[in-house]
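re: the backbone from monday

yeah here it is again, tokenized this time
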């Protein structure tokens, strides 16, 4: 098992050549921008921002496996963490996706690369459940505590509790489902915009969890695990402060987050985080128009090298 099971030292990223906010996801993604966009401009900016983010992470000592997407039918392909995840012990999961055009993001070449460079024992493929309108959008739908073995999941149409149970029994996690809504009563579409779990800390929009008893139970879990708890406001959640990922760099652990998120954190929160991780802000403003940020862009590799 890696030294820090929560913080992988390698990621898969997709560099999009035709990025734009996805028309098929805007109905239930309140984080998605509704502003009119210049498609050519946004496409070029997204390409450059992904290139720059990948270079910054590589400079920190993170192994970045970057794949190109030159297709026109997959506007959200920059978010690979939704269609597959990897796990210690050589396991991979492939997930059922809610939006029809997102199903086209799944790529055999990525799975082949993982099998070639890492030890892969078994691939659990849940994608066929799409035909029954059952969805579990990977580490967007679940935020995994790899140390305590708990899968936190905000219930939504993209997070089916039955598939979650199945995933948890295959991968040895305990499911922890809760409801989370914004002030307008709109459900949070993905858990990973609400919560980030690091090795020594958790930051989350706890106030958006609607059931006080469940919220207290979740906070207690984190306290018992000895994690520092950082409370994010709904405003900070809307600025993608919860959508960050702890990684293992060459000289210690880092927290990859967006520049938007970094600018929305308070000096006290930054100080608290910097006790255990180096903050690495990445400018992904174009990508954020699609309703996701840095965490969504990174599929962590929790596998052992061959």
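seq for it, each position gets an aa:
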């Amino acid at each position: 098992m890696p030294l820090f099971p929560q913080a992988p030292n390698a990621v898969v990223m997709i560099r999009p050549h035709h990025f734009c906010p996805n028309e098929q996801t805007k109905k239930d993604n309140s984080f998605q921008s509704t502003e009119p966009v210049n498609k050519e401009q946004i496409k070029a900016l997204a390409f450059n921002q992904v290139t720059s983010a990948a270079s910054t992470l590589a400079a920190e000592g993170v192994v970045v496996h970057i794949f190109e997407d030159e297709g026109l039918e997959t506007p959200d392909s920059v978010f690979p963490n939704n269609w597959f995840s990897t796990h210690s012990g050589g396991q991979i999961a492939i997930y059922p996706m809610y939006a029809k055009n997102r199903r086209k993001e799944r790529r055999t070449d990525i799975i082949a690369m993982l099998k070639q460079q890492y030890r892969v024992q078994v691939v659990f493929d849940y994608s066929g459940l799409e035909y029954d309108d059952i969805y579990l959008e990977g580490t967007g739908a679940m935020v995994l505590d790899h140390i305590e073995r708990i899968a936190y999941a905000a219930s939504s149409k993209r997070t089916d509790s039955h598939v979650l149970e199945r995933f948890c029994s295959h991968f040895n996690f305990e499911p922890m489902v809760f409801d989370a809504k914004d002030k307008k009563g709109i459900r949070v579409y993905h858990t990973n915009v609400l919560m980030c779990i690091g090795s020594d800390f958790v930051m989350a929009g706890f106030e958006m969890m609607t059931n006080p008893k469940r919220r207290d139970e979740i906070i207690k879990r984190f306290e018992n695990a000895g994690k520092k708890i950082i409370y994010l406001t709904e405003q900070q959640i809307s600025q993608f402060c919860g959508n960050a990922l702890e990684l293992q760099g060459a000289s210690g652990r880092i927290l990859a987050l967006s520049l938007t998120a970094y600018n929305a954190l308070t000096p006290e929160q930054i100080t608290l985080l910097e006790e255990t991780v180096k903050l690495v802000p990445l400018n992904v403003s174009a990508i954020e128009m699609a309703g996701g940020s840095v965490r969504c862009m990174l599929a962590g590799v929790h596998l052992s090298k061959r």
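The first helix runs from residue 39 to 59. The CA atoms of residues 29 and 258 lie 19 Å apart.
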